[in-house]
């Protein structure tokens, strides 16, 4: 095991390979507050990549209802239980002294999936990453427990409407859209005995070499997010490839000048919950400071978007704006100790944050840089914060510009949605 630095944990950790980093890293932000569970992203991925024989149960993109849903079923609860069994009572965060660049969420004092495998070998044999192999039944459907809430809405002492009051609903669920996180320290890569899995040096996308893979399914066992899947017709494993031809700018229709484009699931999103991009990695392997990159702004500057189960130790590059109405202890378990700060910002976004949020799904090309053109003040809104305090939010009709990798303007959108009136002489109502 080598020692590598994980900024999401705020410390060094054990990893089976020496530390190496790409020039830039594929990353994304999902806003769970906007997801409507329509599965358009799921079907766009399925119709593009996993429609062939042997891929029937492959869902590289899926949307599951939390807290009960999951694909495969109960994947996160099982991993959390394995870690708790390996390190009873020790899976805790110390966020008393966060450091913005190297430890923005404080320090995780527990064990990662790599450290747990090293210190507490499983009875079935040594592992490079603590994990398990899901049963066939657990893969049988991607939407078990869909739209199933937690809580009792029929309690005798409950009042009408009481279950839907912020900051936490008494009865709740939310949609969690998932793809491969293309982790900085992938557990699938660490677990592969054939070295068939690798990170691309140009963008950090994690791929499987189909010629080297022998279908041992160690990657399926090791990935804590269960985003590697076995294909019985070929005897190999497959996973989300981040639509890398689009990221390379090879789709002439979407990217006539060769600029990187968003993946299929991103560009098909009806609810506009997704923002995808590439962040530059510096010589130390950290995110290079770039506050005009919308991903860097949301994740590192404002910390409104948080990693999914950072305690697993893979340093996932998928980030989520937490849902406002869900129990904080559940969200902290899922996204780490930055939940309260993220929800406070989302409840009452300031001028710049509100403008950047307009960039979600604004164009199919990847936005590398944004600019803010200030506009007039159009409203003042009284907002009830999660702690019950009242705060006045000022709304400005600013214009946010988005630029692709080549510096070309591809987005121009205002905070206040414009109204267009069609000329009656040209657009006669047929009714």
Structural account:
With 431 residues, this protein is of the alpha+beta class. The protein has one domain: Alpha-Beta Plaits (2-Layer Sandwich), CATH 3.30.70.20. Helices cover 18% and strands 21% of the residues. The protein is built from 11 helices and 19 strands. The chain has helices spanning 40-49, 75-86, 113-119, 187-191, 218-222, 244-247, 264-267, 294-301, 328-335, 339-347, 351-356; strands at residues 2-6, 11-15, 24-31, 62-66, 93-94, 107-108, 174-178, 197-199, 206-208, 228-231, 236-239, 274-280, 306-307, 318-321, 369-373, 377-384, 390-396, 399-403, 409-414. A 4-stranded mixed beta sheet has the order 12-3-14-13. A hairpin with a 4-residue loop joins β10 (228-231) and β11. It is globular, with a radius of gyration of 22 Å. The model has no long low-confidence stretch (mean pLDDT 94).
Features:
431 residues; alpha+beta; Alpha-Beta Plaits; 4-stranded mixed beta sheet; 19 strands
Q: Largest sheet, described in full? A: 4 strands, mixed
- Under the CATH scheme, the architecture is 2-Layer Sandwich
Structural class: alpha+beta
Count of individual domains: 1
Instruction: Determine the number of helices (DSSP H or I, runs of at least 4 residues).
Output: 11
Order of helices and strands: EEEHEHEEHEHEEHEEHHEHEEHHHEEEEE
* Separation of the first and last Cα atoms: 72 Å
Supply the CATH class.
Answer: Alpha Beta
Biggest sheet strand order reads 12-3-14-13
Rg (CA only): 22 Å
- Give the low-pLDDT segments: none
| Percentage of residues assigned to helices | 10-25%
Nearest-integer average pLDDT: 94
Shape: globular
Q: What fraction strand? A: 15-25%
């Amino acid at each position: 095991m080598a020692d590598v630095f994980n900024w999401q944990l705020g410390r060094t950790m054990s990893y089976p390979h020496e530390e190496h980093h790409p020039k830039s890293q594929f990353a994304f932000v999902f806003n769970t507050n906007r997801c409507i569970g329509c599965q358009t992203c799921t079907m766009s991925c399925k119709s593009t990549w996993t429609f062939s024989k042997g891929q029937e149960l492959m869902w590289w993109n899926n949307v599951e209802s939390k807290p009960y849903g999951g694909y495969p079923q109960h994947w996160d609860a099982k991993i959390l239980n394995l870690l708790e069994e390996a390190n009873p009572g020790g899976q805790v965060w110390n966020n008393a002294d966060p450091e913005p660049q190297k430890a923005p969420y404080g320090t995780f004092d527990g064990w990662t999936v790599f450290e747990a495998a090293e210190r507490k070998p499983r009875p079935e044999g040594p592992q490079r990453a603590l994990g398990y192999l899901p049963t066939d039944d657990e893969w049988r459907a991607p939407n078990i427990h869909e739209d199933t809430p937690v809580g009792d809405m029929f309690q005798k002492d409950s009042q009408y409407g009481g279950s839907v009051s912020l900051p936490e609903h008494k009865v709740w669920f939310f949609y969690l859209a998932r793809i491969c996180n293309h982790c900085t320290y992938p557990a699938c890569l660490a677990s592969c005995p054939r070295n068939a899995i690798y990170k691309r040096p140009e963008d950090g996308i994690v791929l499987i070499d189909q010629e080297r893979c022998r279908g041992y399914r160690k990657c399926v066992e090791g990935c804590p997010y269960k985003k590697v899947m076995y294909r019985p017709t070929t005897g190999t494993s497959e996973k989300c490839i981040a639509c890398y031809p689009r990221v390379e700018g090879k789709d002439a229709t979407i990217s006539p000048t060769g600029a990187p484009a968003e993946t299929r699931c991103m560009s098909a999103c009806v609810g506009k919950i997704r923002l995808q991009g590439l962040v530059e990695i510096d010589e130390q392997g950290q995110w290079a400071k770039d506050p005009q990159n919308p991903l860097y702004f949301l994740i590192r500057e404002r910390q409104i978007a948080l990693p999914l189960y950072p305690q697993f130790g893979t340093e996932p590059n998928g980030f989520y704006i937490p849902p406002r109405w869900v129990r904080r202890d559940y969200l902290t378990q899922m996204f780490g100790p930055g939940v309260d700060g993220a929800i406070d910002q989302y409840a009452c976004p300031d001028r710049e944050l509100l403008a950047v949020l307009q960039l979600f799904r604004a164009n199919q090309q990847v936005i590398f840089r944004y600019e803010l053109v200030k506009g007039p003040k159009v409203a003042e809104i009284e907002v009830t914060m999660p702690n019950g305090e009242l705060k006045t939010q000022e709304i400005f009709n600013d214009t946010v510009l988005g630029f692709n990798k080549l510096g070309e303007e591809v987005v121009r959108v205002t905070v206040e949605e414009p109204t267009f009136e069609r000329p009656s002489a040209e657009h006669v109502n047929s009714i």
